[in-house]
Amino acid sequence: FKGGDTCEYLLSSGRFLGEKVWQPHSCMMHKYKNSEAKNCLIDKHVVFIGDSRIRQLFYSFIKLINPQVKEEGIKHGNIPFEDKSASIKVDFLWYPEVNGSMRQRIKSWTESSVAKPHIIVVGAATWSIKIHNGSNEALAQYKINITSIAPLLEKLAISSDVYWVLQDPVYEDMLSESRKMITNEKIDAYNEAAVRILNSSSRNSKAKVKVFSVSKLIAQETIMKSADGLHLPESSRDTNAMILMNVYCNKIMKPIDGSCCQPQPPLTLIQKIAFCFFTLSIIGYLIISLIHRNNYRKNKSCTDLESGEEKKPAISTPNVSTLEMLLHCFCKLGLIMTYFYLCDRANLFMKENKFYTHSSFFIPIIYILVLGVFYTENTKETKVLNREQTDEWKGWMQLVILIYHISGASTFLPVYMHIRVLVAAYLFQTGYGHFSYFWIKGDFGVYRVCQVLFRLNFLVVVLCIVMDRPYQFYYFVPLVTVWFMIIYATLAVWPQIIQKKANGNCLWHFGLLLKLICLLTCIYFLSYSQGAFEKIFSFWPLSKCFELNGNVYEWWFRWKLDRYVVFHGMLFAFIYLALQKRQMISEGKGDPLFSNRVSNVLLFISIVSFLTYSIWASSCKNKTECNELHPSVSVVQILAFILIRNIPGYVRSVYSSFFAWFGRISLELFICQYHIWLAADTKGILVLIPGYPMFNVLVSTFIFVCVAHEISQITNDLAQIVVPKDNSTLLKRLLCIAGFFSGLHFFSAMQDQSRH
């Protein structure tokens, strides 16, 4: 990668993904909405100068501001456009030839007393070829004229954005008789002259006329669809207008999915502090390692010169201290976070837009399913949703979600609805797992709570600091964190009802059901009272955690989307454990869960329910309407899957170790994908090896999985140090963590103040 100037690549190179999606080389292009275009161009004056091809580009450009505009202007005359609401002026000036008239118009803007346009788009040549019948004299005159105009354009480029649009190729077979002299050979000669002459006097200056040559590449692919062989089809000129909008607006609007022409964001104060911390950790670890190695060498066994026998050292190698383990973890984490930053904050690696095709999603799905079946082993226990089975479930779901994200399958509604069920299934497992633990163990101690919160949130907190992103940006972690606290509060508040107590008196079961009903009532109320929900989470310090773009709407939407599924998981755990306690289910190896008749009936109902949901999801027409139904019906497919997976004894007795391995690092995989597998905060794809898409995916995936596995180990190691079992030590650590977050809030406030 030659450097950070992605503007040059946006204006000069790229390729089509499919038929209509243009992918610039090395960067991502944002699709601007009308409101965004207006905000970018507010109080701006844009001028298009040239022939009918430039007029086409003019119309496509103003349609980005106002889609209702019709192409009704004078064909061979000036066309003004104004959007009074945003004070935007866009003018088309009819100058079909590069001649004295065009020079006079451009010269008038160079005078100090005249207001200069903010953007100037110029281009012309086909009329010169046509009028002079493609003569060499016309080309020579064109060179003279453009030589006289070039210094004026370069002078304007000091204060304005000036673009020279090279001539697109033509489809010669379709040209009318009056245009037959316009050949691609002639067009290439005119383009070559323009490129050679423009900027010739300012090669070492930053103020340059930007050559808009990408239109040629687009035309080469699409000119066959032209109506007359000369003018581009509408989709192609719309692409050119969008490129022009990206070149100018990306540095102003800074869209996440528009990495082209965006400068590298400056390091924030918190990022600088984090960089210093990780640097000191690496230096500290190296110093301690050198000291230990030096001590080891001194105590190393040496040979007795007289007897020729080896003497053993009196002192054994010391155990690894807590400080050394801590520095070792932060040393590795620092190197990993550097990779994160380089991938998704520095303009070092390329980024590309996603493009969905059915094959890009379903072929990898089939491939991983075959791998998963190949690695089948016997489970250690045959209980319903045993540890190996839940790890396997998390693993294959996570792999499917990863393929869904990298393939851009969210644009295909049936796939989107099924992925929503997988996310709901994760939350179902949250309800099931935490309820089962508290119900069976009765452990409501601070240690357990801190361990869970640390393991869930450690990586996200570090990424918030290093990547300068709000906590709510990684929405899934806040979601499972809040639901864990809700489950804990539901079961821990008086009266604490656990399995041991309920076994002594059946009335306690009704007490627990009453608690669950109260929880369901609260969920129902908050889901239909957005105002109450937003008030709760708008109080400081909750607002610092759950706000995104200045409000908590995104958090409310995410919470509401799967609002009942955690409750369903808790209820399922309660019913299952009650049946298990009363020995109403058979969990022996190879045994069906119920009697043969009941098992067959339940299995049939489960398969029908599973397929019914899939048919409904596949026939979904509107994402908003389907999202409204999703919270109530997603549990149908989840329960159907659990019964299909657990009723037959043989199926319950085996699991895929391949999927289970990924399941044990599923949280890290979900979070790490944001920055080191995908790019631009999941909006695009990271490109480590340009030009070889399959090889790039293999390499980036290998690194991504290794990093996720390493972070999982680091989190587990740090959890043992940061969250000790001793209550007095734990209290001290909690005070230190509170101090850390207070300092983080202080620096964040300073950072926000300096930005404003």
From TrEMBL:
Transmembrane regions listed in the UniProt entry: 269-291, 355-375, 396-417, 452-468, 474-494, 506-526, 561-579, 600-617, 629-647, 659-679, 685-709
UniProt subcellular location: Golgi apparatus membrane
Keywords linked to the UniProt accession: Acyltransferase, Glycoprotein, Golgi apparatus, Membrane, Transferase, Transmembrane, Transmembrane helix
Domain Cas1p 10 TM acyl transferase stretches: 253-734
This enzyme's EC code(s): 2.3.1.45
Keyword S-adenosyl-L-methionine: no
Pfam families: Cas1_AcylT, NXPE4_C
InterPro entries the UniProt entry points to: Cas1_AcylTrans_dom, NXPE4_C
Top enzyme class: transferase
Reaction(s) this enzyme catalyzes, per UniProt: CMP-N-acetyl-beta-neuraminate + acetyl-CoA = CMP-N-acetyl-7-O-acetyl-beta-neuraminate + CoA; a ganglioside GD3 (d18:1(4E)) + acetyl-CoA = a ganglioside Ac-O-7-GD3(d18:1(4E)) + CoA; CMP-N-acetyl-beta-neuraminate + acetyl-CoA = CMP-N-acetyl-9-O-acetyl-beta-neuraminate + CoA
Biological process according to GO: carbohydrate metabolic process
Cellular component aspect of the GO annotation: Golgi membrane
Domain NXPE C-terminal: 22-72
Bilayer topology annotation: Multi-pass membrane protein
Acyltransferase is among the record's keywords: yes
A single GO molecular function term of this UniProt record: N-acetylneuraminate 9-O-acetyltransferase activity
Family per record: Belongs to the PC-esterase family. CASD1 subfamily.
Name of the protein in its database record: N-acetylneuraminate (7)9-O-acetyltransferase
